[in-house]
Amino acid sequence: MAERPDLDEIDRRILAELQADGRIRVNELADRVGISQPNCLRRVRTLRSRGVIKSIRAAIDERALGYEVVSFVSIQLDSQHQTALEAFEAAVMPLPWVQQCWRLSGDADFLLKCVSTGVDGMSRQLRQFAALPGVRAIRSFPVLGLSKDAPLPIPSDPRANG
Q1: In terms of residue numbers, what domain contains 104?
Q2: What is the per-residue pLDDT for 157?
Q3: Is 75 within 8 Å of 110 (Cβ atoms)?
Q4: 3-state SS string over the chain?
Q5: In total, how many domains does the chain have?
Q6: Residues 9-59: tens digit of each pLDDT
Q7: In whole angstroms, what is the distance from residue 88 CA to residue 73 CA?
Q8: Residues 102 and 84 in one domain
């Protein structure tokens, strides 16, 4: 488990502001959290270098780019040996329509978030997954709508929440 970095109240406020608006300018961010611009920039750079801030990127509407179907796909492998898990991860890494690949514990070994231009595309994707070595079972869950997309809660003391 990764060690949790010590975050003071200013760091937590910076993180909350950046989650609300990743495009905020440093001068406005500094004003909102009550510190100087150079101090704010230093803190943001430190949060990035320590891996607290992984990336800042645009959230794009899938449908605006022609992806009419978003689905979650669970994959169960024949084996849970590290080599089999890594081989599956390597096989899905180059697939641009796989947006996220989560390794799981439980009945499924992986949960993938996929996009496709339609049901036919989703069907082709499922056949591609089935053709991968070691895949035992596939379940797909087409998304009907997004009910919640919230930022990560910034606790006052991360160690207090276990």
Answers
A1: 62-142
A2: 61
A3: yes
A4: CCCCCCCCHHHHHHHHHHHHCCCCCHHHHHHHHCCCHHHHHHHHHHHHHCCCCCCCCCCCCHHHHCCCEEEEEEEEECCCCHHHHHHHHHHHCCCCCEEEEEECCCCCCEEEEEEECCHHHHHHHHHHHHHCCCEEEEEEEECCCCCCCCCCCCCCCHHHHC
A5: 2
A6: 999 999 999 999 999 999 999 999 999 999 999 999 999 999 999 998 888
A7: 14
A8: yes
